[in-house]
Amino acid sequence: MAHILIIDDERPIRVSLREILEYEGHTIDEAEDGADGVIAAQKKQFDVVFCDIKMPKMDGIDVLDMFKKKNILVPVIMISGHGTVETAVQSLKKGAFDFIQKPLDLNRILLTLKHALEKDELEKETNRLRRKVHHNKSSPIVGESAAIKDLLEMVDRVSATDARVLITGGNGSGKELIARQLHNGSDRKPNPFIEVNCAAIPSELIESELFGHEKGSFTSAFKQRKGKFELANGGTLFLDEVGDMGVDAQAKVLRALQENKITRVGGDKDIQVDVRIISATNKDLKFEISKGSFREDLFHRLAVIPLHVPSLNDRREDIPLLVSHFLELLAEDHGQAIPKVDKDALRLICQADWTGNVRELRNVMERLLILTPSGTSISREIVSKYAHLTAS
User: Fold this and answer.
1) How far, in Å, CA of 375 to CA of 66, rounded?
2) Dihedral sign for Cα atoms in the order 262, 265, 268, 269
3) Which of 100, 152, 242, 386 is most buried as measured by Cβ atoms within 10 A of its Cβ?
4) Which domains does the chain have, with CATH numbers?
């Protein structure tokens, strides 16, 4: 059920609306005038607002203006006993969802509310999915530190080539973002960017995942299936956590890189492929080579251009930029205003030990955004209470 705010200076109207809406199972808050209504909407997230037009202190049109100014994103249904066509048009131009004249009609109220909730939910889901796709595919790499500037300069120089790149760095440091930027800066950008998480695929399935299989090649192979090499043809294949790939699969990947050919599991036909390989790992592959768990010849094939993504602890000067960046993205994602961060709170965040790197910082900022009361800043007390940070 919805959380609804009623803004009206007439108590009988508020009582009538409350009774109708509570009977339908909704939760109701009230405000006696526009100014109080704006304050209430800043403190809480409402699904719909019913707002009178003629009120003391601040009328309904001014409420719409303040909602827009303060980035309060909520459908507003205007109600008035002094309605004219001009007033209705003005309200809608200011961003109101609909306009209902007094005396209020029960059916009209419930129908308008239903439509407002449906439209709001649809817009939120559409925007969430659009942002998710956009962020996943083209998230910018944020930072002004010397380490990041050097890395991005290398990315710009390498992306236009077909050179194979090995990206190293800790978990959550942004290796996938670098891989996508390499792809997006190349002539292969219109073609597929295919990702394989080598650590997440069982060793007995990795060959089928990479090279595909023929129908009947094993028990559950009910039909022919293309592998990631074929799907990435003309584009980029990103081998994430390549250090976790089994030795048998490594031998076949090496052949594919040497000959630009693959063979499906259970097949005997060579398939020509044109794929740029970008790989990433959080392991020390030279140490893995010394243990015999990674092929040295494959390492040299993959690491034509080695790129290292620095840990967040090694580029602390980028943390304020990242905090602002994540709050902007996340506030939009959650339909909230962007909160300010107090200096003491930011200092605490900058001094923390970020073992989980940028990914951990993003998760912490999302937690703080959700748990910080609307209309207030992120304080040192809030960070201390909810962020669970360890000092470096």
Assistant:
1) 13
2) negative
3) 242
4) 3-135 (3.40.50.2300), 146-310 (3.40.50.300), 314-386 (1.10.8.60)
